[in-house]
Amino acid sequence: MGRPKKFDPDVAVGQAMDVFWSKGYGATTPNDLVVALGIGKGSLYHAFGSKHALFEKALERYRDDQAAGLIDLLDRPGAVKERLRTALEFIVAANVADPRGCMVVNTATELGNEDPALGEQVRRQFGRTQSAFRAAIEEGQRSGEIDPGRDPEALSYMILSTVLGLQVLARAGKGPDRMNQVVDGLIDSL
Description:
Elements (H helix, E strand, L loop, with lengths): L8 H15 L6 H8 L3 H8 L2 H24 L5 H18 L5 H9 L4 H28 L8 H20 L4 H14 L1
Helix pairs in contact: 1-2, 1-4, 4-7, 5-7, 5-8, 5-9, 6-7, 7-8, 8-9
């Protein structure tokens, strides 16, 4: 009979997410993870297989948490443009408040196309976000808030691109006033 696990793998993924999010994949050492998780190296590798496998789980956790938050903001009742504005302002505030930025954007810029598995996770998150924006735009077109002659796919990609740019600007130290001007301009353009 094996020894019982002395840690909760689900909690460990959350702790690892914080380390990877703060330091990035490349700069995070196995020792950083061992210290943060409070487990031995053998336990780390036994539970997760590799640093890469643990990073994939951490990125997936981050992705799911972020997508749920955005979808919740976009699915609330009220005018579509105001829900879009609220979601974008929330993204600005979160990125200004947390100097780590967006873990998905950080992964995209750090690893680019070097890692196919992580690249696929990044693309899925961007696709999920774009789809949430597209659904809101289509609702706004049905309600008459957004011009029905505009291509919802193109508009949703414009919003996604703006969000990604805002997240990079936040990492570069731009303040919320300038970023909220971008949000205002984007909403006005719809």
